[in-house]
Amino acid sequence: MRVGLFIPCYINAVFPQVGIASNKLLKSLGVDVDYPEDQTCCGQPMGNAGFENEAVSLAKRFDEKFKDYDYIVGPSASCVVFVRDNYGRLRIQPNHQCVSEGKIYEICEFIHDVVKPTHLKAKFPHKVSLQNSCHGVRLLHLSSCSEQNVPYFNKMRDLLTMVEGCEVAEPERPDECCGFGGMFSIEEKAVSVQMAHDKVQRHLATGAEYITGADSSCLMSQNGIIASEKLPLKTIHIVEILAAGL
């Protein structure tokens, strides 16, 4: 399989270590991975802010950049969802399904469902608390959600159990929003901050050293609370754990 690695713009600009870890992790699993140069934003910020027309040119560019790969894989649930669920509706290729829709995966989803490893080479001797992001839970189905009467599952937890030394916990109300929500955190700042505070306190109550999840944006929001309140807790993207020691 030939994989095109999609690195969202905010990861490229603010959390480059997540992109590097994604590349290392996929290669360690024997995946033929390539990073298409000159890739840009997928258009999610414009779409979420109500300016979908301004996202069309970015979607066309994205589709062109990744058209020759068997899979597109990225370390961001929300960006992957925007491509998967919205590109066809944006009509970037009239009368033809865009090539990106059917083959883009969030990295944990891809490893869990497509690669299906039985073990990982990573070592991370720490206790972590799982951050289940809203897009990941309800649109990518990375885990079960509390409002549905379905058996428990969590693909991120499944992968973390393969990491030597890693102890996994989940907070009370595990799939409740952390308060980030993209534009919500700007338009409803006070509510967003309170939600993030409550979420961090629940993670802290697990006794974990780290909060980990599949969206750097959610972790960034909670890290603001941790820093401002000087709490004994850190945040780390899940791919950094899955690639630890490689």
Summarize the structure.
The chain is α/β, with parallel strands linked by helices and 246 residues long. Helices cover 43% and strands 12% of the residues. The longest helix has 17 residues, at 189-205.
Give a structural overview.
It is a single chain. Strand 7 (210-213), helix 11 (216-229) and strand 8 form a beta-alpha-beta unit. The protein is built from twelve helices and eight strands. It has helices spanning 9-14, 16-28, 44-48, 56-66, 77-86, 107-115, 134-138, 155-160, 184-187, 189-205, 216-229, 238-242, and strands at residues 2-5, 32-34, 71-74, 104-106, 127-131, 167-169, 210-213, 234-237. The protein has two domains: 2-115, Rossmann fold, CATH 3.40.50; 127-242, Rossmann fold, CATH 3.40.50. By secondary structure, it is α/β, with parallel strands linked by helices. The two termini are 22 Å apart.
